[in-house]
Amino acid sequence: MTFDVARIRKDFPILDRQIRGGQPLIYLDSANTSQKPRQVLDAMTEFYERHNANIHRASHQLGEEATEAYEGARIKVGEFIGAWDETEVVFTKNVSEAINLVAYSMSNASAVGRGSGKGSTAAGPGRFSLGPGDEIVITEMEHHSNIVPWQLLCQRTGATLRWFGVTPDGRLDTSGIGDLITGRTKLVSLVHQSNVLGTINPVRAVADAAHAAGALVLVDAAQSVPHMAVDVTELGADFLGFTGHKICGPTGIGVLWGRRELLDEMPPFLGGGEMIESVWMDRSTFAAPPHKFEAGTMPIAQAVGLGAAIDYITEVGLDAIRAHELQLIEHALGVLGEVEGLRILGPTEAVDRGSAFSFEVAGVHPHDVSQVLDDLGIAVRAGHHCAWPLHRAFGVRASTRASFYLYNTSEEVDALADGIRQAQRFFADA
Amino acid sequence: MQLESMYQDIILDHYRHPHHRGLRQPYDAEVHHVNPLCGDEVTVRVSLKEVGGEATVADVSYEALGCSISQASASMMTDLVIGKSVSDAMAVSQGFLELMQSKGAGEPDEDLLEDAVAFTGVSRFPARIKCALLGWMAWKDATARALQEASS
Fold it and tell me: Which residues make Cβ contacts (< 8 Å) with residue A112, sequence separation at least 6?
């Protein structure tokens, strides 16, 4: 299968831009956010120009069209990740909200005195109810969005937070798994592909251990869904989150997938219009999933954009994208490996590895590295990439991160290596 | 390269050979500040003394880990405040803050800011403003605490 990166690049208008006075844009920050193809932009414009109305509640043709567009996007998402059906797909504004949704639903289940009605549950023993003695297990390589919500949940409920460590070569340290995942574990939440290390974790193995211990599993797939075929059943996930803006879709739209029986049992997170069945002044009953978890007017055009992004990525082919990225990964490991004083944080082999490369340059701070690269038109990220504990685990204050996607080329990887060398020369002691 | 407008020689010089670096005793207050965006951190100790009835900055000592801008700025800050009365030093701090908020358009007072006028170029890069201000904010915080200690 030939992957024509030049043709793909033509689909992305922003790649034409010039930066810092005439440099062509070399965009190596897709782990932060991806660029958007014309097809996604057109789909959103077309929605606003031809089909815009509110959904579900409008009793006219435009309302029907808008509803079909929105719910059609939901169906596409469900098929894309191998959901049983689209009622397992909840739209959110991003993956951080998706994770918070599960955390807040759990603490709502844990609080005293729950209401009645479809989809809510009484407090007390139950797989969503948490209290002292219960445990949530995460990992040290998580993004803050898969750390902080669980810290807050444990504070609210008295449960204990525990975590897997990371090995020096950036792999999940599963050596203590029997000690970490026990009968006390209610939920294991882990990242599929690290946004810093590029590491692809053995999610299925961890999920199997979690299920054997009676725990649920949430997978942060923000960096994996855009880059490889992901099937929720194969992963062994009970919940999975990803976000539209990293898969060539717009910002403002994310997805929480959850097994239907779990979504049925979970109490709502946000209350408001659309998520209800009936409302009186003193109580309400709630809609069935997924609408139970979608309060108010949702990001309708953005969901349409996500649907178009999924169409686009599916047409290019996730396997083709993964193969292209593997070439870039191998090339990057080679050329970055040749830069003296550069240390890659994370696996240095192209096995179970995605295309995020975080690295240290001896004697040059990441901010300064990224400044020199910016001056050359190269966009990377500097800092801790919302994974501060991971950086501490590596004894590093901050790193520079380059990340690749379907529209990047080997020449761009070469330019990155050259740019790093320029930064080294610029900051070398006089 | 636009880089030279930001990384002026004097800034790189302070980065490579920072002034007044190290944590010294005695001190009246110590603070630890962090830039959550990038993990840059600075520990600043301030020692005050009374000169002619006025609180004066006797010493500022620090340890800092971070980018060239944050390091150079902390170094220059110590040059600019040590020996001044607190109120004069605060005026310099305010002047520097205004320069950093000027989006490159600032016409800094060289008498007030001395070498720190070199940071005018930095103010054109919003991502680096916090770097330049980190040491100054820490010094202000430490000085405020030292004054509070003295009055209590």
Answer: A123
What is the rounded CA–CA span in Å between residue B105 and residue B133? 17
- Rounded to whole angstroms, what are the CA distances from A82 to A56, A234, A236, A391? 25, 9, 12, 34
How many Å apart are CA A314 and CA B101, to the nearest integer? 46
| Nearest by CB: A375 against B3, B12, B41 | B3
Query: What type of residue sits at position A73?
Result: A
Q: How far is B80 from chain A (nearest CA, A)?
A: 24
Q: Which residue of A lies nearest to B1 if distances are taken between CA atoms?
A: A375
Question: For each of chain A's 430 residues, which pLDDT tens digit applies?
Answer: 478 999 999 999 999 999 998 999 999 999 999 999 999 999 999 999 999 999 997 789 999 999 999 999 999 999 999 999 999 999 999 999 999 999 999 999 998 544 433 344 444 458 899 999 999 999 999 999 999 999 999 999 999 999 999 999 999 999 999 999 999 999 999 999 999 999 999 999 999 999 999 999 999 999 999 999 999 999 999 999 999 999 999 999 999 999 999 999 999 999 999 999 999 999 999 999 999 999 999 999 999 999 999 999 999 999 999 999 999 999 999 999 999 999 999 999 999 999 999 999 999 999 999 999 999 999 999 999 999 999 999 999 899 999 999 999 999 999 999 999 999 999 986 4
| CB distance B92 to B84 below 8 Å | yes
Kindly indicate whether the ipTM for this predicted assembly is greater than 0.85, answering yes or no: yes
Torsion of CA B58, B64, B66, B70, to 10 degrees: -10
Q: Residue B127: its chain A contacts at CB < 8 A? A: 367
In CATH, the architecture of B3-147 is: Alpha-Beta Complex (3.90)
Structural domains in chain A, CATH included, are 5-30+317-427 (3.90.1150.10), 44-314 (3.40.640.10)
Judge: A371–B41 Cβ closer than 8 Å, yes or no. Answer: no
* Residue B3 to residue A372, Cβ atoms within 8 A: yes
